[in-house]
Design a protein that fits this description.
Low-confidence stretches: 253-269, 271-282
Shape: elongated
Structural class: mainly alpha
Number of helices: 44
Helix content: 55-70%
């Protein structure tokens, strides 16, 4: 290996082996993958970014699988430590690169060292470091790679850095002399021919020719350079070239005996009576920053981050991109930081408003911005090159030796900014944009979110002069904590002293859209948001037009969040186009990606999106969009039920069509993919649950998909303990089924509502609802549903202490199960009969649970097996045998695993706590009780929380901590208030004992 190098980018990309040998990278895709990872060494590169690097903007359908194959090949190429070096880290992959292993990093270290040595006039050190840096180069960086790798800016930066190192090396050699002195001229002549406008090489060639006794040729080099610069760029050579030219003239004059002993200009000096053009020594030092924004509030952490980054010494200009939605305070932050940094940039501060998203203004072109910057730096208009590349080169040349700060405000895109960036390491740039400008290589990105509640209130107080505004005032939320909206609200309060904050909050809350009230003088939230939307609508790009349509559909539907699949349905496109549209909305800050693949608008953008519906052609009204969404959700929920509920009568019955089921449902289900696992289905339900609740509650009275959708997910939700959401959904489904006159759908909704009430500890309410469902099933003659309903009735009656009625219901259910040849219902009935006998004959109860377990093992049913062991544990507790109970509870939890059955898991964990406590294992019992409380709190399950706190209180009392025991019992009783649990009565007795 070359001095520890492992990876090379300074030439065609290579991997070095342990012995320094070059390992061949046969595949172009593997080479592109390696480069994409090395451009972000030691950092996670997302899967989407890697797809872009390998396939540009059009990855194939098989891109995910192909990427994984290329990762495997790259790991093999890396050798024995390949799997450890290249790891999958969500949301992508991370390649570990240690110090000294990547040639680019080593080159940059030498670059810093040679710059320091050159500045200190340490010529030997400069020569040594420059030679070491240049020895790393094997050719053009990243050569042989397609353009879509996105490293064009990095390659330009590295090539520019190499040319600087070459200049410093030749400078050192000219100062030191030595054996190579004579060979410098041909090398420099070749560089001048290759870079005909680079003044540094011309200056070095002039000095080399002059110091080897060839002054006439040195003057000819100067003459040719000056003529070329004037002809092509309209500028004179810079100060360094003029100084070298003067050295040649003076020493030549002294050698010929014609010296005058004066320092004045010679008659043949071309600069004697000539305007030197953009001479920084004559132009005023720019100080263009607008005033510090008044009442700047908050942002301490990002302000410190920006100051630290921009003030640091580095080998390239520091470029920071401050991004965020309209009105979030990007420009205010940039200017605040820029003013704080003025002393660190003594050569000036430049400011250009690029008008990328200014209402009523066309964005500045790069050519316009370049001309403005060059004029500000002293160039005359007629001498500014017309060609943008030449103008950009001139700007870099002028700024290279300076310490200048540049603020590029309101950039539209990276292409508008890139030509304006300086090349000198002493400069820094702050760019503000709604887009994060991810195509701008090497930039430090600072995304801005709305202010905190406290900072929002502070801004309101400062601008309005009203002292009584606090973080909880409604104006903070109504203004979306957005600085622009907050300033408008505060300005209105300042202008009208009779208008109270509460009155203004009432106006904002009462109107359907707040945007009408969020305009004042030249400030307008609506106009700021409209700039991006109007540009998308008018664009020739498909993704932009799709993005405008997507925003209108988001406005019409107004859900908490959006994923690619749902939006594809709403747009009527494939998922690739939908994702591109969402990405564009994120890029222009009209959406935020709240999690990977999950998008949501700011509240004020929601209002704006709602306004765009009328202006966007082809957008369905809200009800039509909701129907499209409900169709998709119902289809996906059906797939989820297939994945989550074991084969048996429950799944079969829930999948059976009811009279109101839409005819399109079967085709809708066929059009969506099945879930790969139960875990994936459960994750989907959790991800989409907030949207489902919102849609179902709004459209229960108008859509036949509502009862269908809820029937598909009610059982999985209840199993996972999502009681609050289940109750909201089932209540809406019951209302919808009744309005549709769909008796089977109504019966299912009643059954599911009974389950919700049971989970809440309200057994009597659950029984009343269940009896209504049973009456419908008897009328319909649905024996399967009747059997299951009777089973649940028997369980409920047993819990309520009505044992005789419970036994009658369960024995009838057992007969139905045998008629139906339904082993699962038979097993559940034996289990419930066992629970009934637990109160009178626990040994007989255990026999029934064993029969249930045998059937469960025969049919391979997880829930039946888990329940049998859990119930045997409780039977052993009834017999006073906690040692025998513990293994059953442990086995029950083991069988259940990650099955997601909260009702069963919570009962099993509660039994385990009881068994451990009763056998005297207090420490283990306390730990299990803490676990149960944590899980119950996560699900908002107050009923289970109350039961667990009852046990915790008993544990504390056994430890002698009566005060803490009482606190636990009081909390438990509060949680169980309004339930039918017998534990509530026991708690009252415990608390009465004092």
């Amino acid at each position: 290996m070359r001095d520890g190098l492992r990876f090379g980018l300074l030439g065609p990309p290579v991997v070095y082996g342990a012995a320094g040998e070059v390992r061949t990278i046969g595949s172009g895709k593997v080479r592109a993958l390696l480069v994409a990872l090395l451009l972000e060494p030691g950092r996670v590169v997302s899967v989407e970014a890697l797809k872009d690097a390998l396939w540009g903007g059009a990855p194939p359908v098989s891109a995910q699988a192909s990427l994984q194959n290329h990762v495997t090949r790259l790991r093999r190429l890396l050798g024995d430590d390949g799997p450890e070096r290249l790891r999958a880290v969500p949301p992508g992959y991370l390649l570990r690169v240690d110090e000294g292993e990547l040639d680019v990093r080593v080159f940059e270290e030498h670059l810093i060292a040679v710059r320091a040595a050159h500045a200190a006039r340490d010529w030997e050190g400069a020569l040594r470091e420059a030679s070491a840096a240049l020895a790393l180069w094997r050719g053009t960086p990243l050569s042989g790679l397609p353009h879509e790798t996105g490293a064009h800016a990095l390659v330009q930066r590295l090539q520019e850095a190499r040319l600087l190192v070459l200049e410093w090396r030749y400078d050192a050699e000219l100062q030191l002399g030595g054996a190579r002195f004579g060979s410098l001229v041909p090398e420099l002549a070749a560089l001048v021919a290759e870079h005909p406008l680079r003044e540094g090489f011309h200056r070095l060639l002039m000095l080399a020719l002059h110091r080897t006794g060839r002054p006439a040729e040195a003057l000819a080099v100067h003459r040719d350079l000056r003529a070329r610069l004037i002809e092509e760029l309209g500028v004179e050579p810079g100060a360094a070239v003029r100084k070298a030219h003067l050295e040649v003239l003076r020493e030549g004059q002294a050698g010929s005996g014609e010296g005058t002993g004066q320092d004045g200009p010679r008659a043949d000096d071309p600069y004697a009576d000539h305007d030197p053009g953009p001479d920084r020594t004559k132009a005023p030092r720019p100080a263009q920053l607008p005033p510090v924004p008044a009442h700047f509030t908050g942002r301490e952490a990002v302000r410190e981050d920006l100051l630290r980054f921009l003030a640091a010494e580095r080998d390239a200009p520091g470029i920071a991109v401050v991004s965020g939605m309209a009105g979030v305070g990007k420009s205010a932050l940039a200017l605040h930081v820029a003013h704080e940094l003025r002393e660190r940039f003594p050569d000036g501060q430049l400011y250009v408003n690029l008008h990328g998203a200014t209402p009523g203004m066309t964005p500045l072109s790069p050519e316009q911005a370049l001309a403005a910057l060059l004029r500000d730096l002293g160039a005359e208009s007629h001498r500014i090159p017309e060609h943008p590349d030449a103008a950009a080169s001139l700007l870099r040349s002028v700024l290279a030796p300076t310490r200048t700060l540049m603020v590029l405000d309101d950039a539209a895109h990276a292409a508008q900014v890139r030509p304006l960036l300086p090349g000198g390491p002493g400069c820094a740039v702050i760019v503000t944009s709604r887009s994060p400008l991810t195509a701008l290589d090497g930039a430090h990105r600072v995304p801005l979110a709305p202010l905190s509640d406290e900072d929002s209130a502070a801004l309101l107080r400062a601008v309005s002069g009203r002292d009584g505004l606090h973080a909880g005032h409604p104006l903070v939320e109504l203004a979306g904590r957005l600085p622009l909206a907050l300033r408008i609200v505060a300005a209105r309060l300042a202008a009208r002293r009779a208008l109270t904050p509460d009155m203004l909050a009432g106006q904002l809350a009462a109107t359907e859209g707040r945007l009408h009230h969020l305009e004042y003088d030249d400030l307008s939230v609506r106009r700021s948001l409209a700039v991006a939307h109007d540009a998308l609508r008018a664009s020739d790009r498909e993704a932009d037009r799709d993005a405008a349509r997507a925003l209108a559909r988001i406005g019409a539907l107004d859900l908490p969040g959006y994923g690619v699949s749902l939006l594809a349905r709403l747009l009527g496109t494939d998922e690739r186009r939908a994702e591109a549209a969402l990405d564009r909305l994120v890029d222009v800050a009209l959406l935020e990606e709240t999690a990977y693949g999950r998008y949501a608008p700011h509240d004020l953008v929601r209002d704006f999106a709602h306004e765009t519906v009328a202006s966007e052609q082809g957008v369905e009204p809200e009800r039509s969009g909701a129907e499209i969404a409900l169709r998709w959700y119902a289809a996906m929920a059906t797939r989820a039920l297939d994945a989550l509920v074991e084969p048996g009568t429950e799944r079969t019955d829930r999948l059976r069509a009811t009279p109101s089921q839409p005819r399109t449902h079967t085709a809708d289900v066929a059009s969506v993919p099945a879930f790969g696992s139960a875990e994936a289905a459960a994750d989907w339900i959790v991800l989409e649950l907030e949207n489902i609740v919102a849609l179902v509650e709004r459209h229960a009275d108008t859509s036949a998909h509502v009862p269908l959708l809820v029937r598909m997910i009610a059982s999985p939700l209840q199993r996972r303990g999502r009681v609050a959401e289940s109750e909201a959904l089932v209540r809406a489904a019951l209302r919808g089924a009744r309005s549709l006159g769909d008796a089977p759908a109504e019966a299912y909704a009643l059954l599911d509502m009974a389950g919700v009430q049971f989970l809440k500890g309200r057994g009597n309410d659950a029984l009343a609802l269940l009896d209504e469902a049973l009456e419908i099933w008897r009328r319909l003659g649905d024996l399967s549903c009747l059997c299951r309903g009777l089973n649940n009735r028997g369980l409920l009656l047993g819990v309520l202490g009505r044992y005789e009625e419970s036994g009658a219901a369960l024995r009838q259910c057992l007969e139905y199960a045998r008629v139906l040849d339904d082993p699962m219902q038979e097993a559940i009935t034996y289990s419930n009969l066992g629970n009934l006998y637990e109160h009178t004959d626990p040994r007989r109860a255990i026999d029934h649970h064993r029969r249930s377990l045998e059937i469960g093992e025969r049919i391979g049913h997880v829930i039946v097996r888990h329940s049998a062991h859990c119930n045997m544990g409780f039977a052993h507790l009834a017999l006073g045998e906690p040692d025998a109970a513990v293994p059953h509870f442990e086995e029950s939890l083991r069988i259940l695993g990650g099955h997601g059955h909260w009702q069963g898991e919570s009962q099993t964990r509660l039994g385990l706590v009881r068994a451990l406590r009763e056998r005297g294992d207090a420490g283990w019992a306390a730990h299990e009780c803490d676990v149960l409380l944590c899980l119950a709190a996560r699900r908002g399950d107050r009923y289970t929380e109350g039961l667990a706190r009852h046990q915790r209180g008993l544990l504390r009392r056994a430890e002698g901590d009566a005060e803490e025991a009482r606190r636990q019992w009081e909390a438990a009783l509060s949680a169980l208030e309004g339930t039918d649990s017998p534990v509530a009565g026991e708690l009252r007795e415990l608390l009465a004992e004092g």
